[in-house]
Design a protein that fits this description.
- By secondary structure, this protein is α/β, with parallel strands linked by helices.
- It folds into three domains: 149 residues, Response regulator (Rossmann fold, 3-Layer(aba) Sandwich), CATH 3.40.50.2300; 215 residues, Serine Threonine Protein Phosphatase 5, Tetratricopeptide repeat (Alpha Horseshoe), CATH 1.25.40; 171 residues, 3-Layer(aba) Sandwich (Rossmann fold).
- The chain is built from 26 helices and 16 strands.
Length: 655
């Protein structure tokens, strides 16, 4: 039964003559409130009329990931066709304690390779390899095998130790390819992408005709991984330096870069590239992701549904997301956008609207509980969806075309941990607000830090403003210093001069708090860090920043380093800023939600491609965006610092 018009407010109305207003609406160009504002953009219609992808070439072979060839000693001597098991080799080692060091080492290497061959968990393989001392040399062949095993078990420091020993002499020619590939793998793992790529291009020049199929597959995957992690301007330095084959890789990188802005053209561009460059042996073994990308057509919906809580307590937030979605400038008159209020429509009603409007792509819902509920809909499972929040993995239906994008503070915690590791910070401390969000983020930071370092994290919570000073002193052990000073004065009198000291093992502070709390916390660290100690770097998330701060307010936070959306810090998208200034308010949360809606629309046509290439990032208003495991969109934000009453950008998110 239809409701009367006066029973609810509709943000954007639909004026079909034969129907009453519903709890959803279909945009038309004349009724949109943004139409007058975005005069040069046709709001109705995101036609995204994308040309159909033509058939893609299929390279003749794809190298498969596999353990290196089994050592001959791993084959039974009684039957040359029988391969021993890893357990049998380890048992042989246990039963023969009289074996010399070289023999024991070889058996452990054999057992590790067999464990890989048996597809045992990598932790099991690592436990075998850990028993081998990387600093002891026996034979050249064993060192090569050991370095390979260290790489395969991600023990890159040990692998580097072995390789450095090998590099002290002149290696026989038959080991050169293996040695250089191992070195490139270590460089890539250590994010030395430029050094790794240079090594691989040089290797291709010198030894490509000596590659085995497996080695060629490994080299190509490494080249591709390095290319995806380097900006085009950096790659351009390689042009003409390593010959035509390297130039072909760089041209492919340009095609990949372009697909973000022009996804419909990718298939044709790739086909043309492949036809012109497939004569090189390397390109018969292209990484699987390249092949998959060429076969993947972008989303090109002409009927889109935006599911948001347009009524109730989150109406303003929904409106900001809607406005951002509409502000994305890739619109034309062939697409219809249907707005559905998730507060006023049941799942059954929403399914009926989706069917009636022939919806081809869904953006939303926003609330976690709605996402979980909608996961149970057989109809919605058949429609590609960009959910505007994340849910736990146990609640996610195994549906290929369900994506999850959120302004999740957890992304910033993950980024902070990675940043600390890259900066060689060894003993950070955490101070957080003792509320549900603060505790949740602190637990995540502690978990990720322990996973990465196997070390505990010093942390402390504060419950109120009045307890901030106590919490900071406790974290820095200043209280113990004050107690020692009092004891000395009792012994020697008050004429003794002394400075309170803070602990010196902490090398960074991370604050999990809102902007007001951060403004109160920061001075306590400035005051309580000992004059004998080095000034502690203090970090925070975007929750510590608000738009519209005066220079005086910014000076209060001098030195604070934090993550934030680039668009919030500087006007790097003036056209979008002008639109927001006309439809939005000077509110930090609503401005971020506007950017959220904008980026949701920007991501929509290329989600499948980004899922195939998790290394590729797209620059959005909300950060650098990539699709990672579980079809989740991950954000990397800008690192910036308060300096003398202004905010200074420290680096781009990927640096």
């Amino acid at each position: 039964m239809h409701k009367k018009v006066g029973e609810y407010d509709t943000l954007i109305t639909h004026t079909t003559e034969s129907k009453l207003l519903k709890d959803y609406s279909v945009l038309s160009p004349l009724t949109s409130p943004l139409f007058a504002i975005i005069r040069n953009v046709s709001l109705i219609c995101c036609a995204l009329i994308l040309s159909a992808c033509s058939s893609s070439p299929t390279p003749s072979k794809q190298s498969q990931t596999a353990p290196s060839a089994l050592p001959s000693s791993a084959v039974s001597q009684n039957d040359s066709q029988t391969i021993k098991t890893s357990a049998e080799v380890l048992n042989e080692l246990k039963e023969n304690p009289q074996l010399n060091e070289q023999q024991q080492r070889q058996l452990r290497i054999d057992a590790a390779y067999l464990a890989l061959y048996e597809q045992q968990p990598i932790e099991s393989v690592a436990s075998i390899v850990k028993r081998i001392n990387p600093n002891e040399f026996t034979t050249l062949e064993q060192d090569i095998q050991l370095a390979d095993l260290y790489v395969q078990t991600a023990a890159f420091d040990n692998a580097q130790t072995v390789l450095e020993r090998l590099q002290q002499g002149v290696l026989p020619k038959q080991y050169q390819v293996t040695m250089r590939l191992l070195s490139a793998q270590i460089d890539t793992a250590n994010q030395q992408f430029l050094a790794s790529l240079r090594n691989l291009f040089r290797l291709n020049q010198l030894y490509s005709n000596q590659y085995s199929e497996q080695q060629l597959g490994i080299a190509n995957r490494l080249i591709w991984q390095n290319i995806l992690n380097l900006p085009l301007q950096t790659l351009s330095a390689f042009k003409y330096e390593f010959g035509d084959e390297a130039d072909s890789w760089l041209l492919l990188a340009e095609i990949i870069e372009d697909f973000v802005n022009n996804p419909s053209a990718f298939s044709n561009n790739f086909n043309r590239w492949y036809q012109n460059h497939s004569n090189y042996r390397s390109f018969q073994y292209l990484p699987e992701s390249i092949q998959s990308l060429a076969k993947s057509a972008p989303y090109e919906p002409t009927n889109i549904a935006l599911l948001l809580p347009f009524s109730g307590s989150l109406a303003k937030q929904a409106e900001a997301i809607r406005n951002g979605f509409l502000a994305y400038n890739n619109f034309d008159t062939n697409t219809k956008l249907t707005l559905i209020d998730t507060n006023k429509n049941s799942l059954t009603a929403i399914e009926a609207i989706i069917t009636e409007q022939n919806i081809e792509f869904i953006v939303g819902p926003l609330l976690k509980e709605k996402i979980v509920e909608f996961q149970g809909s057989e109809l919605l499972k058949t429609i590609p969806t960009l959910n505007l929040n994340t849910i736990s993995e146990v609640d996610i239906s195994p549906v290929k075309e369900q994506f999850f994008y959120a302004l999740a503070p957890e992304d910033e915690i993950e980024q902070a941990v990675d940043y600390f590791l890259a900066k060689k910070i060894e003993n950070p401390a955490l101070i957080y607000a003792d509320n549900s969000l603060g505790r949740r983020l602190a637990q995540q930071f502690e978990y990720q830090w322990r996973q990465a370092t196997e070390k505990p994290l010093e942390s402390i919570a504060f419950k109120s403003k009045s307890k901030l000073g106590v919490a900071v002193k406790e974290l820095l052990d200043v209280g113990l210093s004050e107690q020692r000073i009092d004891e000395i004065k009792k012994l020697f009198g008050n004429h003794i001069k002394s400075e309170q000291r803070s602990r010196t093992d902490i090398d960074a502070i991370y604050i999990i708090a809102n902007s007001q709390q951060t403004r109160l916390i920061k001075p306590f660290f400035d005051v309580n860090v000992s004059t004998f100690g080095k000034r502690l770097p203090i970090y925070a998330s975007s929750r510590s920043y608000v738009v519209g701060e005066s220079s005086v307010e910014k000076r209060d936070l001098n030195g604070l380093i934090f993550t934030e959306m680039t668009w919030m810090l500087k006007d790097n998208a003036p056209a979008i800023t002008r639109i927001y200034d006309e439809v939005g308010t000077n509110n930090t949360q609503l401005k971020k939600l506007f950017a959220f809606g904008y980026d949701a629309h920007k991501l929509m046509p290329i989600l499948k491609q980004l899922a195939i290439l998790p290394e590729v990032t797209v620059q959005g208003l909300t950060g650098e965006l990539q699709v990672i495991n579980q079809q989740r969109v991950k954000r990397n934000l800008q690192w910036s610092q308060y300096r003398q009453g202004r905010v200074v950008v420290l680096q781009t998110a990927k640096q």
